[in-house]
């Protein structure tokens, strides 16, 4: 088909929507629809190319796939190699597996499946992952595998009807799925949910091959209206919208309308030299902008970039994109398939080597696990397994600790005090959500649901162990957010036998950023201040519960001099992230609070 500068201009617009959103989502909360614009353009162009070759009987599957690989893979592989290498120097040793796994999934165009699972409970978040943006390229390549099969095997006269049917059916199915499950995250990364956007472009390519051309005035009006709606979509659609699904058709249809409207000033402007050139660079711009942003966010453990960082991101993005376009994209477009194969094989070996040695490259930031991760009592965490700590020879052993990861991180606290004061305790704990009956699944967002489901598998096991013990200790990151946790604790208290007691802990406070990333050592090196976040409402609710229930007792972990100086105690790191004590910190807290805790706990042991 004929090359069109205005399509390059639409690509440039799509990139800038995404770029602004990635720099700061508060600037353009729906800027992510730029990806949907890319999908529509791809569907439009690929359908046009395949149908044209089909009509001229020159189409071949191998030729189509090789051209797509030559267009996409060389710059993509170069990006993955360079970012993996750079990430090895930026990422902490504890998070290197996240980097390795993401690079591996990206290079085979399966990263959308990896990222659909959401954040891990511990470690780097998705908005700090330098390969997060590859999900869209993975979907694009997956769609390219399917599109020729549809267009070649179905007769041309039936194609518009089939494509329209598929678009409507899949859109309704995805919209229903999002509504029923209240979970748009997994669908956001799903190939199936994005197929309607590609097909929208394909449908317009088939039905408006000669484009829409009323007269200049009406063309201007129609194109302007669609551009306005597209921009308004980027302004008003947000990450909290039911998106994709029916709502995704708004930017998809407006983009398709822009593609097929002829002779208008919007196309004239988008086809001018600068927008068209930026569109030429758009693929490389898209490749490079996100890893730069993500690595800065990871290093600072801060989402928002300052002015200097924003300027740095803009400049470096355009420099790297120009270099990638000039010396990689353009180079491989003119080379034969053998060059692509040899280069890809060589690049794959380099990537494997870098990924394998990434932990050694991160060695300067290798801090002992006791400071950077949960390393004590993990055998009884997320498993149907019991561990016993404290003084195992003591007769005071009918004590059980339950709860979420905050219960996990006070195991060293209780172990230290137990050994010195002659009591032992058993434990069973879970990530994110305590294993209690009555906690509601709908109270958790899409990233938390997997932790809820895992904890519910341990509910009966936890109840069995509750029945065996006289004193039940429970600690959670929050008892009132969601409220169903508090209600479940109330029900647990009501179900206890007369000789059983329940101790609820007000957990240790949070801080505003990950001290391991900021400090990059277990001895204090940073001069940055940390904001301490106390959960006063949580404390008040637990105090009220203890005051109204005869068999419920309250102990506050958020007190003492050690807590005042977090995340350091005697210039040594005592938190392994923004919300969890490390083993050293738990023991430091125990040494300070031992006397106070035992004055509270001893009467309960002897009752």
From TrEMBL:
Keyword vocabulary terms for this entry: Membrane, Transmembrane, Transmembrane helix
Listed Pfam families: Acyl_transf_3, SGNH
GO molecular function, one term: acyltransferase activity, transferring groups other than amino-acyl groups
Keyword Transmembrane in annotation: yes
Occurrences of domain SGNH (ranges): 386-592
Any single GO BP term: lipopolysaccharide biosynthetic process
Domain (Acyltransferase) ranges: 6-325
GO-annotated cellular components: membrane
Superkingdom of the organism of origin: Bacteria
Transmembrane segments: 7-25, 31-51, 72-92, 135-154, 161-180, 186-206, 218-236, 242-260, 281-298, 310-328, 340-358
UniProt keyword annotation of Transmembrane present: yes
Stated name of the protein: Acyltransferase
Species, as recorded: Chryseobacterium flavum
Phylogenetic classification of the source organism: Bacteria, Pseudomonadati, Bacteroidota, Flavobacteriia, Flavobacteriales
